[in-house]
Design a protein that fits this description.
Layout lengths: L2 E4 L6 H7 L5 H5 L5 H6 L11 E4 L5 E6 L5 E6 L5 E7 L12 E6 L2 E6 L5 E7 L7 E6 L2 E6 L9 H10 L13 H13 L10 H10 L2
Antiparallel strand pairs: 1-2, 3-4, 5-8, 6-7, 6-9, 9-10
């Protein structure tokens, strides 16, 4: 998987390239994922702290070690990039999966294209550092869908239930960990929609069904 490098003070493309075992700055500058960099920096030797540089998946971190006799040797060590995965299920107005439909995933300067699977799922992996943007966009069949990037609390917590209800379209109000009237109303609507006993309680049956609908 290609990885994201954020330029630090004192770095330049040549030094970054060498750290990843590449021949030189041009290897990074010409990499297709760095089109945004070429648009803002017309000279590969001029980058600023905070600039984002994508490193090809084939690159490795290079480390210089010394043998016991003082003779240097070069070793190559893979530098794993932390990754996150976003999974979105798309359904039409009748609740049927939006299957085999092209999409574009956009977060920060990263864009990826794909096709939903037979269950209407978009499964997209990206560098975890892009979470700092807070939002991402899916463009599906010409429709742009903006979504917030965050995390879900465990299903055994009220916040975990609230977060899943909200993402599934059953508005529980504020995600505050309190089982108030709006959250109970959202639970009841979810229970009714999925042929469960409608009592507004956070039962194991409710949590299991929520998990099946929203892992």
């Amino acid at each position: 998987m290609q990885r994201l490098h954020v330029v630090q003070p004192g770095e330049w493309l040549g030094s970054i390239a060498r750290n990843y075992g590449l021949a030189g700055a041009q290897d990074l500058y010409d990499f297709e994922a760095n089109s945004h960099l070429r648009e803002t920096r017309d000279d590969p030797n001029l980058v600023h702290p905070g600039d984002e540089v994508w490193v090809p998946a084939t690159a490795n971190a290079v480390a210089l070690h010394l043998n016991g006799d003082g003779v240097s040797r070069l070793s190559v060590t893979a530098r794993a990039a932390a990754a996150e995965t976003i999974e979105v299920v798309l359904r039409d107005d009748d609740g049927d999966p939006v299957a085999a439909t092209p999409y574009e995933f956009q977060i920060g300067g990263y864009h990826a294209r794909g096709t939903t699977d037979d269950q209407g799922r978009v499964i997209q992996e990206f560098d975890a550092r892009y979470l700092s943007y807070g939002r991402y966009t899916l463009v599906v069949d010409g429709q742009s869908i903006d979504l917030a990037v965050g995390h879900l609390d465990p299903i055994n917590t009220v916040r975990g239930v609230q977060g899943r209800l909200a993402n599934l379209g059953f508005d529980p109000g504020a995600i505050d960990g309190r089982l108030g009237p709006r959250t109970r109303s959202a639970v009841c609507r979810f229970q009714s929609a999925h042929d469960l006993t409608v009592d507004g309680s956070l039962s194991n049956t409710l949590r299991d069904r929520l998990l099946s609908e929203h892992p």
